[in-house]
Amino acid sequence: MAQPQALGEFLQQNQTIAPRDYCDQEEEMIEAERDLAEDAEWKRIQQNTFTRWANEHLKIIDKTIMSLETDLSDGLALIALIEVLSQKKMSKHNKRPTFRSQKLENVSVALKFLEREGIKIINIDSTDIVDCKLKLILGLIWLLILHYSISMPIWDTEVDPNDKQTPKQRLLNWVKNRVPDLPIHNFTTDWNDGKAIGALVDNVAPGLCPDWASWDPKDALQNATEAMGLADDWLGVRQLIKPDEMTNPNIDEQSMMTYLSQYPSAKLKPGAPLRQPTNPNSTPPPRVRCYGPGIEPSGPIVNAPANFTVETFSAGKGNVEVTVLNPNGLPEQVDCRFNNDKALTYSVSYIPKMEGVHKVIVKFNGRDVPKSPFDVKVEGVAGDAEKVTASGPGLQPDGVMVKKPTYFDIHTKDAGKGVPEVIILDPSGHKTSVAAKVRQIENNLWRCDYTPAAVGLHSINVFYAGKAIKNSPFGVRVSPTSDSKKVRAFGRGLQPTGVRVGDVADFRISTEGAGEGVPHVQIIGPGGQPTPFELKAINNSTFDGNYKPTKEGRYRVMITFAGQEIPKSPFDVAVGPKKESSIKAFGPGLHSGIVNKPAKFVVETNGETGALGFSVAGPSQAKIECHDNGDGSALVTYYPTAPGEYAVHILCDEEDINKSPYMSQIILPPPEVTPENVKVYGQGIEPNGVEVGKKTQFTIDHKQAGIAPLEVKVTDSIGRAVPVQVMETSENVKQVYYTATTTKPLTVEVNYGGVAAPNSPFRVYASAPLDPSKVQVFGPWIDNPDVKPNQTTHFIVDATEAGNGDLEVSVINDVTKQAVPVNLIDNEDNTYTVELKPEAPGTYTTNLNYGGLKVPFNKKTVISTQTTQVDVSKVQVEGLEQSK
Q1: Any residues with CB less than 8 A from the CB of 154 and at least 6 apart, and which?
Q2: Exposed e or buried b per residue across 769-798, where buried means at least 16 C-beta atoms within 10 angstroms of its C-beta
Q3: Which end of the chain is more exposed for a tag (fewer CB within 10 A), N or C?
Q4: Of residues 355, 368, 357, 363, the one with CA closest to residue 283
Q5: Yes or no: is domain 156-260 CATH 1.10.418.10?
Q6: Which CATH class is domain 484-575?
Q7: How far is CA 41 from each of CA 25, 211, 638, 880, rounded to the nearest angstrom?
Q8: pLDDT at residue 91 in the model
Q9: Which CATH architecture has domain 40-151?
Q10: What is the per-residue pLDDT across 451-490, written as a single tens digit (0 to 9) for each?
């Protein structure tokens, strides 16, 4: 985009200037997702009012709340708001809450702080805020308004300290004292005709709204619009409610109190259009408002455009004529253009050519508007636009969304005299489609608010004293309407812990209900290095991604949608070292489940001796139960109480095993599905009813359980699937067949609708035909030739593949034919430990019988009589020197 050198040149190139819309535009609020039931209208007004009140305070830290219902749920926005209100820092809290427990802790920190501040909180706890209970959230915000905006501020009229007035009585009495000519008894219907607010504005700033007494109550909306607009422009009283809300019969008193609580501390700004009341005997002037730097007593500069706005909303139909006379009485060229907007405004611009007092004459239907003609002193020294800077979300290249209000700030410190001007060109080059509202916040600081009406590249042109400021124009890409807060991302690849080097860290992004746009992913690995990833669209609203970490350290996964970060982004993932583990886990609870139903899975240790641990993190706390099966496995059950994604961590010595955490999707119970009514029976699920190599079977009857998917799995001890055959013998009755191939424990899962059937998973111990030849013997007594007399030793007998039988062991001295006493220990898994202590040297023979049959094993062990010789010549002794 070419950069114009001056505003005059820009205007010549573009023929007309963009209107500076100083009238207040309706804030576009996100509609509440849940039905507000009865009295919905006043509740929506209250929700809008409280949201505007919160955002007015959060502006100083550049934060915005889009929805009170959802944006406070992690506690961060609530803590930020309270810190701004109290001017105090909150105690330590979680800056990136991911789990529900972290959100609850944050909200708890905020509520405890408020109690220390003297705010009594009744019937509101952390779960209400985290669970987005709108009614209780509004109650909490009302407590903040009462304390920080109504009770705490020092007003110009203080009450007797012995007079125990409520905050409502205090505010009402203050208003009555200010408006003695009107019967004000409440904060609802007494304000509907707009006259009361006009009277209050004129009392706080005499001459700002002097004709309120002659207003027609039938023109309620016009009355409120004029009074509230003047209060916003010149008293700094923000429109926390809108004119159409004040004149609505359903306006609630808490919204009105919130708005009116700004007036006791309101201060009149310099240059306000104060005037005397109109003579009641004369024809009243048109109800036209004029505002802007072009009619201020001072400020305009020679050869720089002077702009102002004429608002005719309250005046009815008519024509606006503007004449500007220079100090010599000669007319200047004036550009006056109708904007065809809600407030029926005209944008007026003229460029004074000489110093001195200019007269600006504004007429409506041939009659002077209030305070016309305006005397404007034009000065000759212009400010330095090079020293002006602008910044804020409204100037970012990406992130601005169509029909969503945004803003940026203009900093004029050390820039000299001048007034900022903003002209916004839409993608078609039109200058009137986007109205820029520029207002002074404080000395040397101005804020420009605007709402783009079209998608595409916009040119934001900022001028000071008629010249373009540094870096102007700014290119801003306006994105389609979307709500990044409705995008969800989940998966193992986004979990804080559990991912290891070399793992495929997968995740899913769902944009359902978020509007137009596609997700954008960036992954930064250790040392700030970008990490490659894959992202594939499954459908229009579902995207699957994965990455493979190659080194230990922190990985940061950043996900944006339509230029805005999604909730919980960025995700910080601590990747640990690669570690192999023989522990296996399987079962439905590792990948799915139903709210308030037990979710189960089995863990096989496969000989690992580390300490096992389990944790489940998700939308709700989940009670965990662990049952030791006594065969090197454990049955783990957890009870989720809310829908959503749960991270199931399986730990060995406090470290996640391979594939942990498992991501389980918990859903609400499907209608008319009752997994607890599934019946499973038969030899194939009996603990000891199955033989190795022989087909077995069991029956599943789900006639009384509703319609849902049936899943049957048989798994061996190391997680390998055993083939199953499922046949339907009658309607909703299935026969399942499988064949055990090993005597090691099997796990049989029967899941219905993602939930384990009663008593599932089943542990099955298959027996093998008696075969003594498959008995294995090993250990120190068998394998170590260096056995000493009177030394306790042992050996192991493994009969897991030999079928079920009784073990007999004898150890005989070949010379004396005496038996050595043995201690036979049954390990209860078809293995045995044999302990013995031979007393004399010699040769010993070990014999075994299994199930009454001789084991084909004959081992002789020799105990030597030799002892170790010591060579004393090689012994050295130190430290015996005589001391002197």
Answers
A1: none
A2: eeebebbebeeebbeeeebeeeeebbbbbb
A3: C
A4: 368
A5: yes
A6: mainly beta
A7: 20, 32, 43, 102
A8: 78
A9: Orthogonal Bundle (1.10)
A10: 898 888 999 999 988 789 989 999 998 877 778 888 999 9
